[in-house]
């Protein structure tokens, strides 16, 4: 074996060559002997080489000829089996043996017997009903893909491209992480019913699909992970069918139920019905219950303050159930009342601290209060035993604000304040500890994951849901993207605020004629929807203000047509104020018995209605509070 060893490392033959060794040496040769070559074994330890093809060599051999299997142990120390052919020939001068040895991976006949003809294997791979894709390297370069994969993506040119380059839209949807984990750990990854949005072109809206996926590492002969195989099943139909069945079941239950579920009623009554719509500050919130049959102890609130600022509150009462919900409701009511009337964080916290000290179930509750001034973005906040807020800039990565150092309620702690600033477009996220204390994650990892996920969502790199306000996307997609991976065992509450440019007022100068009525209604609808008003509030104000405009058209001037002014603005207390004024004198229509009902109808549609009449005209003023709906969710509600 000395000639072979001199050409390469011990036990390894030079590429493309065959060694001539005694028959007994076959058992120690390396599996790297190339296919299609043969070894002629001379007397004793004589060694030579040849490149003659094996078939011809064995055609020239006479005497015994038989294949057999031998064991070898290469330098890695791992025992394996190899195929060996041996031929014996006797001529006039001497007797010699010819041998050829090769590994199973180099034996086309052996591979064909083991896994089938290469062409057939490709056909089977191509026809597999599941999408199968082979990936290479840490960047997940696509090296193989079948027809089902091409059909799923609806494109062909992707071999040699990375997943990140081919599908940039999925970077913020945690799919890259699902590939990185098995590549780094060597442990297969299982994905079940993940919602994924695939971009189908610049002129086409992204498509929502649901997938099941198994991601398995591919290894080199030495055991190192070199790539991945992903087997993907499109289960959109199954998920949609289940969702439709769930909707039908829910509708049937709603139709036939005699009363609403007690826990749901209790939770909804104790939490705010909505969050105020404020000029210069968009607010949104979501509440995910720990279980569908258990009342929770988290709460949140947004309170417009008398000086034009807004207070954001999030709290967590220890435990679950009706007692925790009852304690939560009392703490929230006291906090809201003090903030609404005084607007001072320290005074409000002192009041709820006193209550927590004597209220069963409220001691050691935590709360975070942040007051934001939409005019200049100043933030004052206190973390009374609660995790600190997360600030998400419009053009950078999220960062956690420092904890203020205050302790839980009812423990005799002080409540110091800290300060920061929110730029236009920046978002502030308050959250309960349920989002960072999910199963299977340590606290440092989960806090980093929350910040990274919030950054991706705020930048628009996660799921595209353009019909939602930015704060609504942040509070709903954060729940979906994080909880679907780990699940959750505690209530999770998210409250977000984004500083925005104040909305311009609406000012219309109309001629008092019938065409002014639909014009005013259309302009008011558009303005209210731009504010983020709910459809039901838009309808109420459309009819209420429409009645006022109709009265001005029909009563203010008579045959001589004058002008009508409509002015609408959003106030810092979370309401809209709308005035409809004219410069005429209202005339009585004695012969029309249904006149006079318009003002009564308008009063029923809105929170407040006032009519001021004077020598210079009539002004009807409407005041109506606007709310953005909050979402009370269970795990089954996370997937739209």
Automatic annotation (TrEMBL):
Domain PPM-type phosphatase: 281-499
SUPFAM superfamilies the UniProt entry points to: ATPase domain of HSP90 chaperone/DNA topoisomerase II/histidine kinase (SSF55874), PP2C-like (SSF81606), PYP-like sensor domain (PAS domain) (SSF55785)
InterPro entries hit by this protein: Bact_Sigma-Reg, HATPase_C_sf, HATPase_dom, PAS-like_dom_sf, PAS_4, PPM-type-like_dom_sf, PPM-type_phosphatase-like_dom
Compositional bias annotation for Basic and acidic residues: 73-91
Biased composition (Basic residues): 55-72
Location of region: Disordered: 39-91
Pfam families to which the protein is assigned, alphabetical: HATPase_c_2, PAS_4, SpoIIE
Entry keyword annotation includes ATP-binding: no
Domain of life: Bacteria
The keyword Coiled coil is assigned to this record: yes
PANTHER family, alphabetized: STAGE II SPORULATION PROTEIN E (PTHR43156:SF2), STAGE II SPORULATION PROTEIN E-RELATED (PTHR43156)
Name used for this protein in its record: PAS domain-containing protein
Organism of derivation: Actinomadura bangladeshensis
Highest classification ranks of the organism: Bacteria, Bacillati, Actinomycetota, Actinomycetes, Streptosporangiales
């Amino acid at each position: 074996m000395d000639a072979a060893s001199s050409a390469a490392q011990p036990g390894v033959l030079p590429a493309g060559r065959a060694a001539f060794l005694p028959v007994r040496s076959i058992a120690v040769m390396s599996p790297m002997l190339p296919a299609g070559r043969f070894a002629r074994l001379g007397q004793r330890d004589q060694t030579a080489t040849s490149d003659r093809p094996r078939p011809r060599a064995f055609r020239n051999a006479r005497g015994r000829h038989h294949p057999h299997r031998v064991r070898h142990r290469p330098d890695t120390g791992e025992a394996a089996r190899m195929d060996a052919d041996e031929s014996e020939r006797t001529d006039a001068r001497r007797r010699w043996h010819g041998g050829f040895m090769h590994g199973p991976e180099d034996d086309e006949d052996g591979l064909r017997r083991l896994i089938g003809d290469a062409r057939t294997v490709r056909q089977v791979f191509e026809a597999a009903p599941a999408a199968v894709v082979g990936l290479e390297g840490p960047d997940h370069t696509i090296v193989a893909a079948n027809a089902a994969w091409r059909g799923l993506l609806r494109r062909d040119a992707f071999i040699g491209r990375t997943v990140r380059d081919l599908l940039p839209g999925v970077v913020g949807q945690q799919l890259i992480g699902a590939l990185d984990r098995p590549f780094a750990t060597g442990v297969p990854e299982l994905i079940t019913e993940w919602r994924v949005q695939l971009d189908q072109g610049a002129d086409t809206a992204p498509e929502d699909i649901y997938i099941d996926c198994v991601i398995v590492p591919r290894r080199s002969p030495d055991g190192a992970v070199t790539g991945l195989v992903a087997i993907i099943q499109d289960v959109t139909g199954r998920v949609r069918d289940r969702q439709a069945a769930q909707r039908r079941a829910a509708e049937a239950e709603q139709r036939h139920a005699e009363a609403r579920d007690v826990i749901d009623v209790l939770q909804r009554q104790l939490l705010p019905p909505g969050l105020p719509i404020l000029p210069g500050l968009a607010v949104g919130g979501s509440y995910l219950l720990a279980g569908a049959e258990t009342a929770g102890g988290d709460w949140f609130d947004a309170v417009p303050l008398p000086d034009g600022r807004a207070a954001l509150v999030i709290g967590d009462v220890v435990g679950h159930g009706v007692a925790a919900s009852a304690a939560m409701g009392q703490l929230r009511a006291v906090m809201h009342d003090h903030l609404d009337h005084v607007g001072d964080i320290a005074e409000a916290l002192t009041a709820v601290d006193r209550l927590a000290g004597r209220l069963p179930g409220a001691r050691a509750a935590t709360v975070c209060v942040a007051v934001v001034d939409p005019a200049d973005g100043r933030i004052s906040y206190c973390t009374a035993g609660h995790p600190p807020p997360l600030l998400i800039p419009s053009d950078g990565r999220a960062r956690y604000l420092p904890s203020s150092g205050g302790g839980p309620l009812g423990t005799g702690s002080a409540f110091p304040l800290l300060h920061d600033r929110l730029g236009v477009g920046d978002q502030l996220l308050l959250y309960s500890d349920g989002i960072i204390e999910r199963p299977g994650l340590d606290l440092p990892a989960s806090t980093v994951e929350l910040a990274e996920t919030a950054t991706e969502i705020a930048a628009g790199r996660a799921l595209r849901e353009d019909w939602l306000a930015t704060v609504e996307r942040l509070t709903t997609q954060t729940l979906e993207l994080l909880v679907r991976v780990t699940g959750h065992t505690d209530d999770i509450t998210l409250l977000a605020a984004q500083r925005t440019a104040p909305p311009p007022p609406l000012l219309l100068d109309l001629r008092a004629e019938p065409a002014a009525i639909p014009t005013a209604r259309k302009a008011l609808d558009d303005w209210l929807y731009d504010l983020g008003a709910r459809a039901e509030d838009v309808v109420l104000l459309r009819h209420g203000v429409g009645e006022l405009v109709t009265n001005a058209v029909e009563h203010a001037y008579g045959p001589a047509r004058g002008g009508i002014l409509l002015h609408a603005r959003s106030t810092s207390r979370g309401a809209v104020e709308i005035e409809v004024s004219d410069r005429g004198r209202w005339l009585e229509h004695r012969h029309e018995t249904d006149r006079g009902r318009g003002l009564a109808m308008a009063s029923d549609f809105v929170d407040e209605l006032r009519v001021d009449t004077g020598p210079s005209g009539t002004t009807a003023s409407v005041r109506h509070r606007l709310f953005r709906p909050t979402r009370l969710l269970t795990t089954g509600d996370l997937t739209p």
